Amino acid sequence: MEEIPDFWRTEVFHPLSVHFPIALLVVAFLFKVIALRYSRDLWERGGTVLLIGGVITVWIAIFTGDLADGIVSRKICDPTVLKDHENMAWTTAWLFTAGLGVDLLRQLKYPIFNNILFRIILILLLATGTGTLTYTGHLGATLVYQQAAGVYVPSGNCAEFE
Q1: C-alpha triplet 73, 95, 149: angle, nearest 5°
Q2: Please, what's the b/e burial string for 86-120 (b: 16 or more CB within 10 A of its CB; e: otherwise)?
Q3: Which string of DSSP letters, residue by residue, matches 103-120?
């Protein structure tokens, strides 16, 4: 009889950590878009705080994804999807990091950084980042639901649960 593996496996840390940046970065983008319309400090600052948290957690997700990659890549049928997922994740992390850099420059309140051009650049970076984040999530879901990446697949008769 096969034994059920422990839940706290290295490859499980990635899905546990990846949902924080997804939520934080999407909501940060929404806050910044709302701030465009309503020009409220609350939306602007809230978006910045969420963006900081999202950028920190997206790099944690990249780190845990790299840990899982070494384990999962040996067990899936089509590793090209995993490579695409990884490349898109890096692109997403850098887009949001650049967006945070632009946002922090805007917070300095120097006239050169606090003009409409920097606001447009910020929104474009965050919009592009949100798009790549969505596609990265799609690729991750494809890995899990089509190739069982990082997932324990029980035996046909589920004898290990008896």
Answers
A1: 20
A2: bebbebbbebbbbbbebbebbeeeeeebeeeeebe
A3: HHHHHT--TTTSSHHHHH
The pTM of the full predicted model, rounded to 2 decimals, is: 0.91
Residue-wise pLDDT tens digits, 124-139: 999 999 999 999 999 9
Instruction: Give the residue carrying structure tokens 């924080």.
Output: 20
98: Cα separation from own chain's centroid: 15
- The answer to whether 150 and 11 are in contact (CB under 8 A) is yes
pLDDT above 90 for 123 = yes
User: Both tokens of residue 116?
Assistant: 């409409």
DSSP designation for 11: G
CB 149 within 8 A of CB 82: yes
